[in-house]
C-alpha cells in the first residue's frame, strides 16, 4: 500500500512537471511577440498566425495521440511528445524566417497533441476515485505556474542579449533545453 502511494505521488510529480513545461512553452511566443516581430519583420497578425498554426496542427494531430495512447504505454507517449515539443521549441529559437518559425510551431503542435491527452490519462490511471480530484488540481496548478514561468522567462529575456544572441531566442533555448530523465517506480518520462 505504501509503495503504491509513493508510486502514485512520484507519477503525479512527473506528470505535473510535463504539464508545467507544456504551458510554459505555450506562453513563450506571445511573451516575445514584439521582439520576434522586429527580428523577422513580421506584423502582429502574422505572429498570431504562428500561434494559430501550432493550435491547428495540435488539433489535427489529436487522433494520432488517441491512437498512440491506446496502443502504447502512455508514459512513453508523454515522453515522445515532450521530446518532439522540446526539439520544436529549439527550432523556433533558431528560425530565421516566418516560414521556418511556422514549420517549427507546427511541429510543436504535434508534440503537444501527443503529450497533453496522455498526461490527463496518466493522472486518471494513477489516481483512485478518492484522490483523482486533488491529482487533477495539482496538474492544473502546475499548468498555471508553467504559463506564468513561460511568460516571465520570455518577458525577462526578450529585451536582453547574451554573446550576441537575442534574448527572445534565448527564451526558446531555455524552454526547449533537455530536462533530466526520470526513471523511478516504473514511470519513465523524459522531461
How many helices?
8
CATH superfamily: MFS general substrate transporter like domains
CA-to-CA gap between the ends? 27 Å
The share of residues in extended strands comes to: 5-15%
Report the major sheet.
Answer: 2 strands, antiparallel
CATH level-two architecture: Up-down Bundle
C-alpha-based Rg, rounded:
17 Å
Order of helices and strands: HHHHHHHEEHEE
Strand order of the largest sheet: 1-2
Please provide a written account of the structure:
By secondary structure, this protein is mainly alpha-helical. It has one domain: MFS general substrate transporter like domains (Growth Hormone, Chain: A). It has eight helices and four strands; from the N terminus they run H-H-H-H-H-H-H-E-E-H-E-E. It has a two-stranded antiparallel ribbon. The chain has a two-stranded antiparallel sheet with strand order 3-4. Helix 1 runs antiparallel to helix 6 (98-126). Mean pLDDT is 85; it is low at 182-191. Keywords: Membrane, Transmembrane, Transmembrane helix, Transport. Pfam families: MFS_1 (PF07690). It is found in: Membrane. Belongs to the major facilitator superfamily. Spinster (TC 2.A.1.49) family.
